[in-house]
Design a protein that fits this description.
The chain is an alpha/beta fold. It contains seven helices and 17 strands. It has a single domain, classed as 2,3-Dihydroxybiphenyl 1,2-Dioxygenase, domain 1 (Roll), CATH 3.10.180.10. Helices cover 21% and strands 33% of the residues. A nine-stranded mixed β-sheet has the order 14-15-16-13-9-12-11-10-17. The structure holds fe (ii) ion. GO terms for molecular function: dioxygenase activity.
Length: 332
């Protein structure tokens, strides 16, 4: 199967697991401010879904010593597509394992990106069926819009920091059939790539981690699809002491309307206030931005992204240099 033929093997980003040292506060952020429903509690984890997420959960919050990404999960377009993706990983000698131990999901393939992010892929899912009290009158909506905070509709995308993004991008392209819609070059070093398998501008992005750390999370994004909701959410976050990093504004890259905040556990969360560009052209070229001239790429409205945007991430493994820096600071 050629790379072109791999294109429709992954349907979409279905779920992600966030680690947090303050699980009750993180749960409060997602349920009370973003209106997500809890569907199950088990051990040190709680499972949540937004009102238009189709399956039992799109977000798993797990208590851990520090913040970070547990894993991201993508749904294939068929059972055969899942087997073909496993074959593609095996052909490149990528370590993989199979499991069937997550609430609401069946047979699942587990592996890591070349930078160490956990990835799961699956076909079998348990569709969410709302109890009568939560049923929506809008038939395409799996549950009623909640009366809490400014509720998000669904999981949208994830952005992974990587010590070297090129092998991460290549793995998503070669093994899972993603196409790269936009990228950023600094000289001849790739510093950003935005990837999709469907019409959305991106579902997976990866950006260079300038600290040299491996496998960190940059952000997890949830969908509003309305610019006004990003403004409403910004007001809510100010009122309830949630740190806003930057926004609302619109990235030139993906044309995505952004608002970045830190949930109480420390993970960066993005609220996505429009649909962004849709990729209807199946063989469009990758659009390449120049890192040294991409103010428009960062923010069409001129918002200045703070230095933390390029250096702060959660989880992963720090480089030896970064660890030495931290121990120097600790000994001062
Ligand atoms: Fe994003």
């Amino acid at each position: 199967m050629s790379h072109q033929d791999n294109r429709f093997e992954i349907a979409h980003l279905a779920r992600a697991e966030l680690l947090t040292p303050v699980p009750e506060k993180t749960e409060w952020f997602f349920t009370e401010l973003l209106g997500m429903y809890v569907t199950k509690r088990e051990g040190q984890s709680v499972y949540l879904r937004s009102y238009e997420d189709p399956y039992q959960w799109s977000l798993k919050i797990t208590e851990a010593p520090s913040a970070g990404l547990g894993h991201l999960g993508v749904r294939t377009t068929s059972a055969a597509a899942l087997d073909r993706r496993a074959d593609a990983l095996k052909a490149d000698s990528v370590n993989l394992s199979w499991g069937e131990n997550e609430f609401g999901y069946g047979k699942t393939l587990h592996f890591q990106t070349p930078d160490g992010h956990g990835v799961s892929a699956f076909w079998e899912v348990e569709k969410y069926v709302a109890p009568p009290a939560l049923q929506s009158k809008i038939l395409t909506r799996p549950s009623r819009k909640p009366l809490k905070g400014v509720p998000v509709k669904r999981l949208d995308h994830i952005n992974l920091m990587a010590s070297d993004i090129t092998p991460v991008r290549r793995s998503f392209e070669r093994h899972l059939g993603y196409r790269t819609t936009e990228s950023v070059l600094n000289g001849n070093v790739e510093v950003g790539a935005w990837m999709t398998t469907n019409l959305l501008g991106h579902e997976i992005a990866t950006m260079r981690d300038s600290t040299g750390a491996r496998g960190r999370l940059h952000h997890l994004a949830f969908f509003y699809g309305s610019l006004q909701h990003n403004t409403d959410a910004a007001e809510m976050f100010r009122e309830y002491d949630i740190e806003i990093e930057v926004g609302p504004d619109i990235h030139g890259i993906t044309q995505g309307a952004f608002l970045y905040v830190m949930e109480p556990g420390g993970n960066r969360i993005e609220l996505f206030g429009n649909t962004g560009i849709l990729h209807l052209d199946p063989d469009a070229d990758t659009k390449v931005w120049d890192f040294n001239d991409f103010d428009v790429g960062l923010a069409i409205g001129g918002a200045k992204l703070p230095p933390t945007y390029f250096t702060y991430g959660t989880g992963g493994t720090l480089s030896a240099e970064a660890q030495a820096d931290l121990s120097r600071l600790a000994s001062v």
